[in-house]
Amino acid sequence: MKVVGNNRKVRHHYEVLDSVECGMILLGSEVKSLRDGKCQLEEAYGRVKGETLWLVGCDIAEYPQATVWNHEPRRPRQLLVHKREMVKFIGKAKEKGLTLVPLKLFFNERGIAKCEMALCKGLKLYDKRDRMKKADAKRDMERAIRRRT
Q1: Which of 53, 56, 63, 92 has its CA 20 to 30 A from that of 21?
Q2: C-alpha distance from residue 130 to each of 4, 134, 136 (Å)
Q3: Kind and range of the H or E element at 140?
């Protein structure tokens, strides 16, 4: 599995409740650009339109050699999900306060572009502070243990 794009801020801003691996409908120039690793997921999110799932705001840079047949960098891209996963995700995504966010874009072992979408709940500021305090305390404990041995 070759990871092309990673959304590192998701774990800081959201609590990940569930995730699913989705296929993507892409143009040829988009696939070439992804293989070069030119994509950004920071502002991307998932949207449910009817019975389909869409990736909105993902920026896949134009492929320089595609010239006339190039794609629009920030166009919405349809995601392909199994029906039972889609029903489960649509039901949960319509709850208040839950968001669909892409975690990463990657190519699987067969060379097919995939997107890992997560169902997330936004963290409050005090949750973030509490998490940082716990991480600092754990780090200090590990340092103290290492010094003693």
Answers
A1: 63
A2: 32, 6, 10
A3: helix 125-148
Give a three-class secondary structure readout of 44-60.
CEEEEECCEEEEECCEE
Percent of the chain beyond pLDDT 90? Answer: 32
**What's the CA gap between 104 and 82, in Å, rounded?**
19
Give pLDDT, residue 54.
Answer: 92
The predicted model scores a pTM of 0.78
Provide the 8-state DSSP code for 111.
S
- CB-based contacts of 74: which residues, under 8 Å, 6+ apart? 57, 58, 59
What is the set of domains in the chain, with CATH numbers? Answer: 2-124 (2.40.280.10)
Classify each residue of 106-133 as buried b or exposed e, where b means 16 or more C-beta atoms within 10 Å of its C-beta: bbeeeeebbbbbbbbeebeeeeeeeeee
- The 8-class DSSP code of residue 14 comes to E
Stretch (H or E) spanning 101: strand 98-107
